[in-house]
Amino acid sequence: MEKRRKVTTETIRQMKHRNERFVCLTAYDALIARIFDEAGIDVLLVGDSLGNVLQGHPTTLPVTLDQMIYHTQMVKRGVQYAMVVADMPFLTYQISAEQALRNAGRLMKEAGAEAVKLEGGERIAETVRRLTETGIPVMGHLGLTPQSIYQFGTYRTRGVDPAEAERIRKDALILQEAGVFSIVLEKIPARLARQITESLDIPTIGIGAGPHCDAQILVYTDMLGLTIDFSPRFVRRYEHLYQRIADAVQRYIADVRQGDFPSDEESY
Ligand code: KIV
Questions:
Q1: Which residue's C-alpha comes closest to atom 4 of ligand 1?
Q2: Quick one: which atom of ligand 1 is closest to the CA of 53?
Q3: Domain residues for 254?
Q4: Is residue 193 part of a domain?
Q5: What is the mean pLDDT of each run of 10 residues along the chain (268 residues)?
Q6: CATH classification at residue 208
Q7: Tens digits of residue pLDDT in 84-131
Q8: What is the dihedral of CA 210, 211, 216, 222, to 10 degrees?
């Protein structure tokens, strides 16, 4: 068996050229990151989805840079091989390229992020250029971009309307030209994702964007069935951990109440 190597931007660039799919998941701490890394995941995204998933907020907007640094540090400690990408939260990169550089620098220097992810197309192209010229790998994110949810007003599929589809196609080319090493495509029609994937030299990473992307990503709490209030059709549930954990905790409660736990073997 081939020796497993650390995944880098170069690894995934080569995978695109060999037509090999790579696989990504979100992670927010060392415990989970270690399991995913050992299972063989290629890229772990410390997503600002932790605002919804861990913090219980309705959107990703309240997440701060210090929180992203804290979670990225934890994920890094659990990982040996996967590439670790950190989301830049809302208003930590939109004000100016200088602001983005300072904050992306903190994610790399203080947390060990190997790349950062930014939402948006043409309007962040200059910032992407500045970061990549400084040696910071950038992952783009187009389609449904959750930091703009109040502007969209809805979580509906993006790029169904031909003008919006054209905008996303153009933004993808602009981001590639500005230097991103990959682009997340969220909740767009499979046909549009295919056109974009075929038009780019860099890999696309789909979430709700059909099967033609170079990679797929899911929020891990969705695919493992830990979140139960969110079930869009693009999520495949590989486990039902919410119920399994609740069942285990109920057995523990019953054992303690009945005096079955701890047993003699579990005592000193
Ligand atoms: O924050 C996040 O988890 C993300 C993924 C859904 C791509 O941006």
A1: 47
A2: 3
A3: 241-268
A4: yes
A5: 92 97 98 98 98 97 98 98 98 98 98 98 98 98 97 94 98 98 98 98 98 98 94 96 98 98 98
A6: 3.20.20.60
A7: 999 999 999 999 999 999 999 999 999 999 999 999 999 999 999 999
A8: 50
Of 176, 191, 61, 190, the residue nearest 122 (C-alpha): 176
Ligand 1 pocket, Cβ-based, cut-off 6 angstroms: 26, 45, 47-49, 87, 184, 207, 217, 219
Ligand 1 atom closest to Cα of residue 87: 1
| Nearest one of 214, 200, 127, 180 to 9, comparing CA atoms | 180
C-alpha 30 – ligand 1 centre gap (Å): 18
Q: How many domains does the chain have?
A: 2
Q: Which residues are catalytic?
A: 186
Specify whether 122 is located in the same domain as 100: yes
Q: Which of 46, 184, 187, 226 to mutate to test the pocket of ligand 1 (most atoms within 8 A of CB)?
A: 184
Angle at 168 between CA 68 and CA 45, to 5 degrees: 25
* Residue of minimum CA distance from atom 6 in ligand 1: 219
**Mean residue pLDDT across the chain:** 97
Both 22 and 80 in one domain: the answer is yes
Residue owning the nearest CA to atom 3 of ligand 1: 47
Which of 43, 44, 45, 216 to mutate to test ligand 1, by most ligand atoms within 8 A of the CB atom?
Answer: 45
- pTM for the model: 0.97
Q: Pick from 88, 79, 77: which is nearest to 48 by CA? A: 88
Distance CA 83, CA 45 (A): 8
